[in-house]
Amino acid sequence: MVTKNKDNSASRETSSRGRHGVNAEATKAAIREAAGRLFSESGYESVTMRRIAEAAGCSHAAIYRYFTDKESLLEELTRPVLEQIARDFDELTVDIASAGERLVEMCMIFVRFGMRNRNMFRIFVAVKAERVDREPTPSSRTENINRLRVQLFQRIQRQLAAAIGLQPESERTLLFSRGLYYLLHGTIATYEGSEEADEELLGRLEPTFESTIRNLLNGYRKETETMEA
Fold first, then answer.
1. Element (H, E) at 134
2. Average pLDDT over residues 199-211
3. Which of 158, 155, 157, 161 is nearest to 178 (CA)?
4. Cβ atoms 106, 160 nearer than 8 A
5. Residue 15: pLDDT band with limits 50, 70, 90
6. Domain regions of the chain by residue span
7. How does pLDDT run across 83-142, given as a tens digit for each residue?
8. Longest dimension (CA), the chain
9. What's the CA gap between 51 and 67, in Å, rounded?
10. Long-range contacts, 169-175 (Cβ 8 Å, 24+)
11. What confidence tens digit (pLDDT) does each residue in 181-196 have?
């Protein structure tokens, strides 16, 4: 009987730990959801940890058991998204033979992502951002997500160099890459407040977006040919 009681006690303890783990994950998910919603509605800077905790249904003290500050929440929301875009970019290097076509499709991946996440796009790519054309500040609280942002830009920069026939680290490649990156961001920002449904908007305007990107790249090619003539 003593052995049986010990077994029952151990079973209850294991069950309790299991429930605690499930509850902890549910609370963490609620905090992430509340943070994303509040950041998109009110802007990152104006939202406090206390407000996120209230929206998530947990105490102000409890939220710090899961996230040390807003920057850690920002990373939790942003990192998986940026990593997925990077994977989508990398898959194109296998699927498409032409360097120019790969670059166009990379740009369209970025634009489609931005259009489908217009309420969070600025959070993912711009909040607490540093320059994307140099390494982020070491040991900063947003170093990890800014490194991912830099790596996305570098992928576009390398692909542009291959498409145009330039050295990846040349000043002209950097100049062209900045211009292309501005175009992509500006395209998405233009429709940030649009009430048109994501897929409806893309269905209507995707050919325009792609044509604009191709025209810019053709202009880069002609400029490069003129400079080298």
1. none
2. 97
3. 157
4. no
5. very low
6. 2-65, 70-228
7. 999 999 998 876 677 999 999 999 999 999 999 999 999 999 999 999 999 999 999 999
8. 94
9. 14
10. 172/224, 172/227, 174/133
11. 999 999 999 999 999 9
CATH number for 70-228 (one of 1.10.4030, 1.10.287, 3.40.50, 1.10.357): it is: 1.10.357
Q: Round to whole Å and give the CA distance between 227 and 222.
A: 9
Length of the chain measured in residues? 229
3-state secondary structure of 96: coil
7: pLDDT strictly greater than 90: no
- Write down the residue that tokens 């003539």 correspond to: 229
Report pLDDT for 72.
Answer: 95
Q: Which of 135, 163, 157 is nearest to 220 (CA)?
A: 163
Provide Rg for the chain, Cα atoms.
Answer: 23
User: What span, in angstroms and rounded, lies between the C-alpha atoms of 56 and 50?
Assistant: 10
How far apart (Å, rounded) are the C-alpha atoms in residues 225 and 220?
9
Task: From 140, 100, 146, select the one nearest 127 (Cα to Cα).
Answer: 146
CB atoms within 10 A of CB 26: 10
CATH architecture of 2-65: Orthogonal Bundle (1.10)
CB-based burial, 54-72: b 16+ in 10 Å, e otherwise: ebbebeeeebeebbeebbe
